[in-house]
Amino acid sequence: MDMLLVLKALSDKNRFKILNLLLRHDYCVRALSKKLGISEAAVSQHLKVLRKAGLLVGEKKGYYMHYRVNGQVLLKLAAMLEELARIERQV
Predict the structure, then answer these.
(1) Has this prediction a pTM greater than 0.85?
(2) CB 14 within 8 A of CB 38
(3) How far apart are CA 68 and CA 57, in angstroms?
């Protein structure tokens, strides 16, 4: 997993909002579009970036694809950031 790709995916405010929504509930593109007040096309593009980074998993339910967060990627990111924070500066 490419952590820079994950960080880039999270650097957009709409993608960050999408991630926060999906942490609480599974949503389809239409529902996310209504919640965020942006077009379905824009939501689809944001979801594509988040999926490519490994942050989301899609599951087909009826006619719609519902998305959820891959928590393992967030845990790895948190561990990497904690590791960085523990590096001691050498003088």
Answers:
(1) yes
(2) yes
(3) 5
**Of 77, 72, 74, 27, residue with least CA distance to 47:** 27
Spell out the residues 6+ positions from residue 14 whose beta carbon is closer than 8 angstroms to its own: 36, 38, 42, 46
Residue 13, token pair as written in the block: 């405010």
Structural domains of the chain, ranges and CATH numbers in brackets = 3-85 (1.10.10.10)
Rounded average pLDDT per 10-residue block, the chain, 91 residues: 92 97 96 97 98 95 94 95 90 80
How many other CB atoms are there within 10 angstroms of residue 41's CB atom? 10
Cα distance between residue 17 and residue 86, in whole Å: 28
